[in-house]
Amino acid sequence: MDGKLKKAASIFILISVGVFLSRCQQDENEAPGIQKREQNKAVTAAKKWFENSRLQLEGLAFTETIDWNHAIVTDGEKGQAIEVPLILKPNTTTNVVADEKYKTYMRLLFVPDIGDTYKVYDIIYTTKDDAFDNTNKEQNFYHISSRFSGYITIQDSQNKIVYSGEFVNGMVTALHNLSRESNETSRTYCRYWVYVGPTITCSSWVWEPDYGSGYNWGPPGLSGSIPGIFFPSLKLDPCGAAKTTTGISAKAGYLNAKSDIMQASADGKEHSITLGNGAGGALTQAPMNNGGTNGVVVNQNWPGAFAAMHNHPNNSQVSAGDIYAAVTLNTKNSNFTTSFILTGGETYAIVITNLTAAKAFVAAYPADISPIYPPEFPDIIFSQLLALVNVMGSSVEGKTNAIAFTLDKFKSGITLLKQEHSGDFKPINFKEITQANGSKSYNSIPCN
Question: How far is CA 113 from CA 71, 110, 230, 322, 363, in A?
Fold first, then answer.
């Protein structure tokens, strides 16, 4: 870390402080009112369009009231989203899950599209939480409440299920009702029961999640005028990420790519293969990219790309460059969540489990870049890693463990996994314990 250039502190001089603060106070008082008026205009426009659209959304058949008065408008990195709670007919439930303790809540989601039109979706919340408030603005397109546990299911305007995920404390733990082997729903009987009072009706809502062959955790297909709209705040549980990664590693496409890279690594250089989602759940692999001794270019344009694999010929730990590159790949492509690293006879994986947090981490702690050395962590991170290596060891495993603990400590939204001899990937996760004498130890935290 010696010899790094440090940015000089900038000094800002505020002139006419009294006038400046007065003006700020005035702007702050006006801002909420202006924002509310703009949100009301957005809701009014969506309502007018909807009333003239004559959409045949299946959920509307079981709706008593469209609660426009409690519409939720959010603006964020993916644009504007308008959510309108639906007040359902008494005793209306779905078979998202068979447990009768789960209750059903619905909202309409409006995503602005081209020419003053909208893409419309039905969001179904299924939860045991009796205190769930469907009008709560804290549960929205840009923020899934940390209190939410249950299922979130999305149906498009063609009455097709495009997403269903299981959540625990605001984090998605698994895609719901999806068979990994056949990439199809596991249900073959009447797929959507509707209970209205004493009457049980088999609805025509066909339960066929349109996942394609992918493993992306956000709902696909929510693309209006802004490409690739999905739940931006989606957080993947590390143990759920490990299960999914284990499933990927058993596929022929993964195994072939790993074999090809291991054979090519005999030249002492790095090699990279991008993995994509193909037909019928199979994985495809891009042509191998050949690099140098300390780096290789990742193919970002391979159809269906969701992961990349490369080797470390010098048998070094997962590097800072690997971490920052993984965030960049996921930022450019929401499906590109995983990077596999082959080093020292072991296989590690970097999974972006919370892209919003990962982007914030990179912004707060940008990589130190040198024209002659690979990217490195900034001093505040690097110094903590050095201290941890004294406890965890200087082996590849010890250094990688130190990086994993530090990333978790800084709430980076980045999870490191290691493949065990059984073939299963496990999260590298530690709990820090301070002893009576002030020393610290680190215990591995297993998945339940």
Answer: 18, 9, 14, 36, 30
Enumerate the H helices of 311-395 as residue ranges.
320-332, 355-364, 379-392
What are the angstrom distances between the C-alpha of 396 and each of 138, 224, 344, 426?
42, 45, 8, 16
82-109 per-position pLDDT tens digit: 999 999 988 887 777 778 889 999 999 9
d(CA 379, CA 372): 18
Q: Is the Cβ–Cβ distance between 318 and 195 less than 8 Å?
A: no
How buried is residue 389: exposed, middle or buried, by Cβ count under 10 Å (0-12/13-18/19+)?
middle
270-282 burial, b for 16+ CB within 10 Å, e for fewer?
bbbbbbbbbeebe
Nearest to 427 by CA among 243, 251, 250, 254: 243
The C-alpha atoms of residue 105 and residue 85 are separated, in whole angstroms, by 8
Q: How far apart are CA 79 and CA 97, in angstroms?
A: 32
* 130 Cβ contact list (under 8 Å, min separation 6): 103
- Judged by average pLDDT, the poorest of 69-73, 111-115, 132-136 is 111-115
Nearest C-alpha neighbor of 109 from the set 53, 63, 46, 164: 46
Cα(9)–Cα(174) distance, integer angstroms: 46
* Closest residue by Cα to residue 265 from 196, 337, 331, 343: 343
CA atoms of 61 and 71, how far apart (whole Å) = 20
User: Could you give the CA distance from residue 410 to residue 328 in angstroms, rounded to a whole number?
Assistant: 18
Backbone φ and ψ for 422, nearest 5 degrees, come out as -70, -15
* Distance of alpha carbon 20 from the chain centroid: 41
CA–CA distance from 242 to each of 149, 397, 428, 446 (Å)? 20, 18, 10, 11
Alpha-carbon distance 95 to 81, whole Å?
Answer: 27
User: Rounded to an integer, what is the distance from CA 266 to the centroid of its chain?
Assistant: 36
- Lowest-confidence region among 72-81, 107-116, 361-370, 386-395: 72-81
Query: Tokens in use for 186?
Result: 């596991």
